[in-house]
Automatic annotation (TrEMBL):
This is Kinesin-like protein. It comes from Horornis vulcanius. It is found in: Cytoplasm, Cytoskeleton. One of its GO terms (molecular function) is microtubule motor activity. SUPFAM superfamilies: P-loop containing nucleoside triphosphate hydrolases. CDD domains: KISc (cd00106). It comes from the Eukaryota. Residues 2-342 form the Kinesin motor domain.
Length: 346
């Protein structure tokens, strides 16, 4: 199968509307999105397009996220990643409003793909009895360092290793078992609060790191009934569901970043460039492919499995409809179009 790029167009913000920005992105229905502005007139096709009026539930149901949860339970390695310009709605799409915490939960209608997937996963888990063991790990990549968002104390850098059996993996990362929705949502919110964010001209809460929350779904081996003992125990299956909230691509001159912020921006842009490069090469026909440079960044190493063929990937491209964001919007749409051509063999 191929990754399913879906596109989400956020509403114009209050600031954009007051400034008189034009809406240059329109959904044409049937997975088509049209960009029309001076000297630009382009139509792109995707598996689904959600425009400004789409609810969080519509995005969950229409993106194929529910099927992804079921595939993870069946032992597949599944990845969802949200990408796009800073301030385009990636974190909101995945998690919902930023102001939520354990003491101040978000309204159920505003919850994002993550919480809806957890609910779906736990419902499936209950319907299968106690067969499933669930655990979570949560990392961020900040300035090319990997940090554990769940381990207590100040975040320290963890080494990234490679082995023949596991591929790239993070050494000493904490994995926490959970059995209830409250427990996994609490892990998500605790980890998110430890993530690096800063304010700049385009976004008050800009994510300065790439975050990867991975749910490990292990179906326990259980013995067949007595009459089928010759068949032996059923093998256990292990699937994963990984949510990747990529830091936004940004032009330093538009965000007004300087000093540490611009160092972060360069690090973010470098790793996004490495990811785009891997996707471009993977989009070529198999016979024409050269070496895929996963080792160019920590992000591409950690996503090597999801991108490179043994997993199933859902991509959510988030874009702003504003005329001011036109060049970033076009580059996000081109990026997602390239990703459509990647084929995987899960």
């Amino acid at each position: 199968p191929r990754p399913h790029p879906t596109v989400r167009v956020r509403p114009l913000t209050g600031t954009e509307a007051r400034r008189g920005d034009q809406r240059v992105v329109h959904s044409l229905g049937d997975g088509a999105v049209h960009v029309s502005a001076a000297r630009h007139d382009a139509t792109f096709g995707f598996s689904a397009v959600f425009d400004a009026g789409a609810s969080q539930e519509a995005v969950f149901e229409g993106s194929g996220m529910r099927q992804l949860v079921e595939l993870a339970i069946d032992g597949f390695s599944c990845t969802v990643f949200a990408f796009g310009q800073t301030g385009s709605g990636k974190t909101y799409t995945l998690m919902g409003p930023l102001a939520q915490s354990d003491t101040q939960p978000a309204s159920p209608a505003l919850l994002g793909l993550m919480q809806r997937s957890f609910t779906c996963l736990l419902e499936q888990s209950r319907s299968r009895g106690s067969d499933l063991a669930l655990s979570a790990s949560y990392l961020e990549i900040y300035n090319e360092q990997i940090r554990d968002l769940l381990s207590p104390g100040p975040p320290c850098a963890l080494p990234l290793r490679w082995s023949k059996t596991r591929g790239f993996y993070v050494e000493n990362q904490l994995s926490v078992e959970f059995e209830s929705l409250e427990a996994i949502v609490s892990l998500l919110l605790q980890g998110s609060q430890r993530r690096r964010t800063s304010a700049h001209a385009l976004n008050r809460h800009s994510s300065r790191s790439h975050a990867l929350l991975t749910i490990h779904v292990r179906s326990r081996a259980h013995h067949s009934p007595a009459w089928a003992l010759q068949a032996g125990p059923c093998p256990s299956k292990q699937g994963t569901l990984c949510f990747v909230d990529l830091a936004g691509s940004e032009r330093v001159k538009e965000t007004g970043s300087s000093g540490e912020l611009s160092v972060e921006a360069n690090s973010i842009n470098r790793s996004l460039l490495a990811l785009g490069h891997c996707i471009s090469l993977l989009a070529k026909p198999r016979g024409k492919r050269t070496h895929i440079p996963y080792r160019d960044s920590k992000l591409t190493r950690l996503l090597a499995r999801s991108l490179g063929g043994s997993g199933i990937t859902l991509m959510v491209a988030c874009i702003s409809p504003s005329s001011r964001c036109l060049s970033e919007t076009l580059s996000t749409l081109h990026y997602a179009s390239r990703a459509r051509r990647v084929t995987t063999r899960p």
